[in-house]
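QUALITY CONTROL LOG
STEP: pairwise intake check
CHECKER ROLE: data steward
CRITERIA: each record must contain a sequence immediately followed by its structure tokens, with no blank fields

ENTRY 1 OF 2
RESULT FIELD BELOW
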Amino acid sequence: MSRIGSATRRFSVRTLPLATLPLAAAVLAGCLALSACAGCASATPGPPGPANVSSAQTSPAGTARLGALLRQGPAGHLAPALAAIADATYISYVSFTPSGAPIPVSGAVYVPKGTPPAGGWPLVAYAHATTGVTRDCAPTLSPDMFGNEPMVADLVGNRHWAVVMTDYQGLGGPGVHPYLDSTAQGLDVLGSIRAARSLGVPLARSTALYGFSQGGRASEAAAELAPTRTPEITLVGNAMISPALELDVMAAIDAGTFTPVQYAISPLLVRGLQAVDPSIRTDEILHGPLLRNNAALLACTGASVDQVAALLKGVSPADVRPEGSARPAMTAYFERNQLPRTPNRAVPDLVRRGSADALVTPAWTADAVRRLCAGGVRVQQEIRPGGHYAASDIASAGAWVADRFAGLPAPSTC
């Protein structure tokens, strides 16, 4: 246990403004997201990069080794509450695009203040929920991390673990963010772990994965890619809250069953496809209010609940219709990125989700869990009442990860 000041301090998520919580963005009644997304941040993000970077590059920019550290320095844009409990370091490191090209990716490492336990701080790789798709949507650029800060603060302040959080490629760095590309974001997570472990921070040998919404897809992809891409990393488990594992988007489009919040993220889905295939035009997929308001729906800041509702006014199933070559391209994109693909039996999973999730349809996640179980993964599935996010998710995921760090057998509901 680390100490904050002269006494152990309990960091309370409940004291944070509701607008910073993913609940405020996960459903239309709370805003736009596959997560804690656009418009729920009250702070204005600063320019890309750390505050007062003091160290030179530690590797050439062209180094093509996953996780090679390119830059490090003091992290800026911290919420005061998080700054009081964590020492934060900005990192830039190498990852790979969907086409396999090396790309710099930014992120940050948060270490509890105080003396590390014997063996070093346990490390959690946190894969964040949706924050947007443009460069200024990097969570490390916003004090509230676009709604992800409560998770990081709990892990550091309450659990006394070190946390590394990738921004994902295209957020805070060069390139176009390949939204929901499983391999790219899985590699971003694995690369962040390697980069964190090259800083010289006293870290324990074991690492836990922790993903929320879009981040659940990233953390599961990381677990599946780890044996071949980062075999030296010891993963003790993967905790996922409302993970976007299987997204049967094309069937929902054809059936006209999108929910309002699924319509709201449609421009992000198209942008993810365009990152892989720039020839796809937005007007080949989106129509009506979604096309007219595309730029506003892609923004990561500034939209209130009422503003998002106004942007969606009059939307109908006809407004999401892939046409021409866009249809097979979109179909292939979602099929290629569905998870699980190669379940990793060595990494147990927690899947915690709401029974009435309007963003990640419960039937989609149920099928993904079934396939994880069939693949031999020990999965503890927790289904709670409600939607995409509940305050109890943080405590539940933290307790599950604590048991994995303690070496307790992973339970299974398979």
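ENTRY 2 OF 2
RESULT FIELD BELOW
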Amino acid sequence: MKDERVLKVLLVEDSDGDARLVKEMLKSEGAGSFHVDRVKRFEEAMKRLGRSDYDLVLLDMYLPDSQGFGTLVKACSQAPGIPKIALSVVDDETLALKAIGIGMQDFIVKTCVDGKILVRSILHSIERHKLSPASGKNEKTVGKELSSCLLDRFAFSPKNAITAQLFGFVPLCRSQPETFKELVACYEELLDEALKQQTHNAVCDMFDNMSDKLQALSERLGFLRLGPREVIEIHATALRQQTQKVSQSKAMVYVEEGRNMVLELMGYLVSYYRKYSYAALRQSEFNYCRKDRILKIKDKIGRLDEEGG
């Protein structure tokens, strides 16, 4: 883990065996980065949250004093300011989407999880929660949401398109429409894959595979000399097309996952350009030194010719 701070996790689980397993997974994969408190009842969990600060809640859906989806609804209503992950014995995509739609950060099926998946889910859930209105950081959240909206508007604004053309810049969707469509289709596939990982507790290798695919996409964007404007345009187009054909709850998940994806893609693109710029600088230095050596050799040959003459 990059963050060396110990994260406080409240585990709400009435099964001693399941609770022991969760603690062992966090202990083996978290390397001392987690402090876990466990309670068995929903009301006890709400009281504990009122007295102590926690970074995240792992919440079993079926407790002695609260059963089923209502447990998640009450948790999101009574403790909106803390990220929560639902724990279930039922592998149900519809239920998972509903849970995420009401404010849960993730939905984990107990029989399909291991330590690496659990740790990564916790870390991602905490980061996603920081971007959500429920985090309580209203001004920062509003600012980020406004920035996202402005970026989308900037990408599709006719005024900006005209201004860009005056300076000799034509958007990719107009200059190379087929390439643009291909990139959008590729991004849509990644969005679908990200959504499946979010709702099916994908194995750790699939998370790594997603990062590899985003990095490969960034290299292609970099090769085409595309920048943030084009990335936002591709992102917004893909997101718009995907959310038009799904339910509102699923659309919300697409938007959330898309926000994380585009930030990761931007990071890879920046790294690509840094690497490219460094390589170009090194090549420039090499060419300069080579030219300087050639001039010195020619000068030396000239002097030798003069002496020989």
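INTAKE CHECK: passed for both entries
DESCRIPTIVE NOTE, ENTRY 2: Residues 137-276 form one domain.
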